[in-house]
Amino acid sequence: MLKSLTDWLLDPSGLTPHGFCLSWEPGLIWTHALADSAIGLAYFSIPLALMYFARRRPDLAHRPVFYLFSAFILLCGTTHLFAVLTLWVPAYGLEAAVKVATAIVSVATAVTLWVLMPRALLLPSQAQVQASNAALRDSEARARESEARARAKYDNTPVPLHVLDAGGVIVSASQRWLDLLGYDRDEVLGSLISRFQAPGQDHAADDLRHVLETGEALDVPRRYLRRDGTVLDVLASGRVEREDGTPRILGALVDVTARVRAEAALRESEQRARLALAAVNASGTWDWDTIADVLYADASFAQIFGLDPAYAEAGAALADVLVNVPTDSRARIQQEYDHAMRAGGDHSFVHPVVQPNGLVRWFLAQCHSTLAPDGTPQRLQGVLIDITEQRNLEEQLRQSQKMEAVGQLTGGLAHDFNNMLQGIAGSLELLKARLEQGQLASAERYIVAAQGDASRAATLTQRLLAFSRRQVLAPEAIDVNELVTSLAELIQRTVGPGIKVATAPADDLWMTMCDPNQMESALLNLCINARDAMPDGGRLTIETANVTLDRRAAADWDVMPGEYVSVSVTDTGTGMSPEVMARAFDPFFTTKPLGMGTGLGLSMIYGFAQQSGGQARIWSELGAGTTVRIYLPRQKTEARPRPMPGAEPAKPAKPTGRTVLVVDDEPTVRMLVTDVLEELGYTVIEAEDGAGGLKVLQSGQRIDLLISDIGLPGGMNGRQMTETARLTRPDLKVLFITGYAPSAVLGSGRLEPGMQVITKPFTLNALAARIKALVSEVEAA
Predict the structure, then answer these.
(1) Contacts of residue 643, Cβ cutoff 8 Å, sequence gap at least 6
(2) Distances (CA, A) of 397 to 247, 362, 402, 602
(3) How far is residue 541's CA from residue 693's CA, in Å, rounded to a whole number?
């Protein structure tokens, strides 16, 4: 069977070549031969090109189709070559076999083409490919730009960033990270993160293990080493991220070197502060946030003020702190704190504090006020130093010095008092003799002389009390212009006709709060000093003015900022040298001859001004005169009418129906006060000690006014009796009588409402005026 097929394919016997059909026409023969040869060779070249293209484009879609086309075209070319062969050789069997193969491949190729036609139609055109390529290029450009922006953002983020692989190798680091540690990128990438940690910081492996195993973010303080060898304190953060299952650690370094060093410096400063506070016996510290109005204090401060330490540490209200300050000091201390807060800088002041056990201790508050750039107060920080023992020692020293000074002047004072007593005793003795003789015409001369010497003795006593700072102030709202006008005639008589007295009262002068008697005494003393400085005559000017002191001016005057009434006394006398002016306010300092002056006048004025909340200053030049100016704080209330000097003695009056209790252990004083009251028409009840007076006050007896000495026998003084009585009689009007004013009279230098004080010796006219003033308050109520 196989032999028969082979013979059929290869045996050309009995067949005629194809050229025979062409009659062996050479032109036709060769035309067919050349054309078929050319077609065959071309068909052989096309498959080679297709195969070469398919092999060079491994990404080509539908590659089997290229192979089918190659086989189909190759067989087609073979059939053309057989057409040339069969012109001369009748190998029609082989030609038939080739055509069969060609037919098979052709059909397969055709079927494949039609099957793939839908897919082929989906292939993009050249324009589409170009557009797609352009879009792809744009996309790639945008991707590159986005990557560049991401890289720039990564490099320029304020927080230094780095990326580690699971082994702790740095695969990426931002420019800020590189700048922070001072390295180049090539030096960092591929290095272990532990390479850049400071010596002794072997935490890298543990940190990586924690982040990888737990998946938790990590924030820990670490120390890193810069390229220049300096050590940085950083807060190292890290968290794990996974990309295609591969773990990466995104880390960040926050430079906290400045903060760590500041905290260390603060701890060191606090330690130094604790040592310094211990060295100066500091008793507590505080920090007042003036914006939030909260005061933060330590446990020692809390103990002093009776506060819960936890409450003080968390922030206490200022009102809860001041409640432990004595009532009579609270307003002053509040003003001092407010002034320090607004002024800024360093300040110090002294104030008492009532301890939980009821005892009063004194503290020096040293503080510093911090202001914002616009001047707004922000904080007031300070310390308290217990100066109770120091204050007691200083008070003892001052008293000792005063007693020493008084002792040095005993002779002069005794001489003055002897002269005054001689005048009083002599006048009274002559008065008695003239009365016995019935010679009444000369009686008034002796009475005036005795009263004059008594007034001189009272003035000297007041000066001594002012020096000792134990004089009692009975402040009230006064019009200084009115007071100056009322004293003008007396001043002119005092200074004599050789000195011209001029007054320059300010228009619309403000009221001031002070003791009018002390103010009169201060003016008279200044005028007397001016007279003594002008032995050949001159001009004396008393001037008043309204003055507003800002923070800087108030600091120069050493007073609180605010509104003041100024009283100036100017003379055209000899003036003072700078050395004398510097000591003018010193107690017992005088330039007058022995027996002509005690040196207490200006000291009394200085003490009076300060106790009244003001200040006194001197301006002087040799040969050009002197000005003494007193500043007194403004009082925004109306003045109370005051009796004019030289008022006529009270005349007997009809019964008023009002009752006055008089408590005094001195029978003579009690008799005089009782006689004056009865002259004025009052019913009088007498008591000789505090217990007796309190018994009357606690009874149902009507009492419109209490007149009491301060120093009473029997264990209860006048102040204690009054305080007890006011528990049941809160509106009781009180007039204190005293010759020596201890601190029990006025702890703060001021009287409580409804109280007045008059000091011995006093005129009966002055006593009557005080009684009428207090009773008028009862009637007004």
Answers:
(1) 765, 766, 769
(2) 83, 17, 9, 22
(3) 49
Whether the CB-CB separation of 615 and 631 falls below 8 Å is answered with yes
| Gap between the Cα atoms of 641 and 476, Å rounded | 11
User: Model confidence over 429-445: pLDDT tens digits?
Assistant: 777 877 887 777 767 77
Do residues 718 and 734 make contact, with C-beta atoms less than 8 angstroms apart?
Answer: no
> What integer pLDDT is reported at residue 412 of this predicted model?
46
Answer whether 511's CB lies under 8 Å from 549's CB.
no
Beta strand spans in 399-555 (E): 476-478, 499-504, 512-514, 538-549
Cis peptide before 649 (omega within 30 of 0): no
Alpha helix (H) ranges present in 280-409? 299-304, 309-314, 318-322, 327-343, 388-408
Least Cα distance to 609 among 523, 499, 496, 696 occurs for 523
Q: pLDDT band at residue 358, thresholds of 50, 70 and 90? A: confident
Supply the pLDDT for residue 6: 62
- CA dist., res. 337 & res. 369, Å (int): 10
The helix (H) or strand (E) run that includes residue 182 is: none
pLDDT tens by residue, 200-235: 777 778 888 888 888 788 888 888 888 888 888 888
In this structure, the strands spanning 476-478 and 499-504 are unpaired
Q: Position 464: which residue type? A: L
> What does the alpha-carbon distance between residue 450 and residue 426 come to, in Å, rounded to a whole number?
8
CA–CA gap between residue 367 and residue 349 (Å, rounded): 9
Q: Are 29 and 87 in contact (CB under 8 A)?
A: yes
| Beta-bridge partner residues of 474 | none
Determine the Cα–Cα distance for residues 305 and 320; give it in Å rounded to an integer: 9
% of the chain residues with pLDDT over 70:
82
What DSSP letter does each residue of 563-624 carry, written as one string? EEEEEEEEE-S----HHHHHHTTSTT---SPTTS--S-HHHHHHHHHHHTT-EEEEEEETTT
Cα separations in angstroms, 5 against 15, 69, 399, 646: 16, 29, 158, 175
Whole-angstrom Cα distance, residue 71 to residue 610? Answer: 128
**Confidence band of 544 (pLDDT split at 50, 70, 90):** very high
Distance CA 209, CA 215 (A): 10
Integer CA distances (angstroms), 427 to 97, 423, 432, 672, in order: 181, 6, 9, 20
Work out the widest C-alpha separation in the chain, in whole angstroms.
212
**Residue 647 near residue 765 (C-beta atoms within 8 A):** yes
Which tokens go with 71?
């086989």
Which residues in 90-180 belong to E strands, given as ranges? 161-164, 170-173
Amino acid at 214: T
Q: Where are the alpha helices (DSSP H) in 172-219?
A: 175-181, 185-188, 204-214
Q: What is the DSSP pairing of strand 538-549 with strand 755-759?
A: unpaired
The DSSP-derived string for 233-277 is EEEEEEEEEEETTEEEEEEEEEE-HHHHHHHHHHHHHHHHHHHHH
Strand partners, 499: 538
What is the rounded CA–CA span in Å between residue 144 and residue 285?
Answer: 63
